[in-house]
User: What shape does this take?
Amino acid sequence: MYQDKKTGLLLPDSARPQASGYSEAGASRIRRALRSFIPRSTAPSEDIDQNNYTLRQRGRMLYMSSPVATSAINTNRTKVVGVGLTLKSSIDHETLGLTAQQAKTWQKLTKREFALWANDKAACDATGMNDFTSLQQLALISWLMSGDVFALFQRREGNWLRPYSLRIHLIEADRVRTPSDMGAGLIPLTEGKNPVNGNRIFDGVEVDAGGMVAAYYVHNTYPWQRTSEPEKHQRIEAYGKETGLPNILHIMNSERCDQYRDVTYLAQVIEPLLQLNRYERSALTAAMIQCFFTAWITTEAGASELPFNEVGGGNVGGIPLENPSGISSSPNELEMGEGTINILQPGEKVTFGNPTMPVTGFDSFVKTFCELIGAGLGIPYDVLIKEYNSSYSSARAALLDAWEDFRMRRAWFVSDFCQPVYEMWLSEAVALGRVKAPGFFSDPLLRAAWCNARWIGPVQGSLDPLKEAKAAVLLIQNGLKTHGQVAREMSGGDWDENVEVLADENRRLEAAGGSSRQEIDLHEKEEDEGNA
Assistant: This one.
């Protein structure tokens, strides 16, 4: 029994309200609009892994066939990585007991040494096809297109020209999957178990009892690949037992807890992208149809006397040597072309069709769809379509909004790929004695201090450079930003290097009889005072 608050009467429990809170809102099973909306979401391994093969293939096909999908991924590549993320070593000199000048000297030498490895295709890429900048671009595109990508560390014997043994082998998502002999079965059944240690395997990622990634299963072939090479797989432990360093990097972004594989960047907009692509093709076909005339030959001849292939394209099977023009001489073929005159047989006449298939509202329809797709991908319409026809404020707002996503994605990429690769290279450089870093292998705190670095990439860009430069000067003058921050944000440069170069340029300019920057500023100040 319960007491009704309004009437004060004691009523049986069966009279108690059966729905409350979300039962009367989004969780209602009674409302007509929601009655048939009964989704069923399970574990990430089932919701994601078992559908990932299909999502990857569709994402790749849209990248290859849909201009909007291509723009979305390539725009990310250009803004996140661009011509490459550049190493800016910034060691913690206080922890290391170094002066600022000593730290600056060490950083310069290390940057040069890293460039020796990173700028040589044969030195950094296991396939010898890409330098480190191109590896960044390839890894990012593969990550967005397929959902994730793997970087396997390999070793090759060094020589006097290439002293480092470290090589990076990028592996596409399809090659990492659960072996069929460990319970995976056919696609898309992706879950399995390691028979040796009992660890579970989720689409090629082995995890221990605590959920920690233990190993990856890399296959030598792709699913359904046509090859005479027998399918094999190799178990790659995530971390070396002795060194604790990673053996393989997994570049991905998690969207759910307990998730070990990611979905393509286009996953949430696959259907609208596909439908938009079909609509654009249909509109193009309709426009092409309007460019053609369709003609019907009407004749009074009987069915047995109807000519075959009335309008032809010349002789079938190529242009013969005796007829280089390609125009058919057969009485049963009529040619159509510029200024062509054909003589019809008695009783025949030509009737032309007048196709009218206008595509009304094409621009507004496509724009609306692109706006929705861009919202789903985190790219405003202006940036996605590269159309900046709106006002300055609107275009700048679109760029700023997109830049937030690009910066976030760059931070993920640096954390998953660039920084771990640099730390692996630096470990070898210190071990070889080419870079001096005391305490690197004895204290993890000192190692972290030596490895500290920033990665400088493409800047946001500006629509009104003069206005934004003045704003940057005000920020510096009021202590809201430093010279280094503004240099990185506005040009992607290094303020310390800029100062050194400018000082050298001013000395050379004065030696040549020119005016230094200080003299120019003093002259402008005197002119301003004179005008006042």
The longest strand covers residues 149-155. DSSP finds 15 helices and 14 strands in the chain. Residues 4 and 10 are 6 Å apart (CA to CA). The chain has a mean pLDDT of 84.
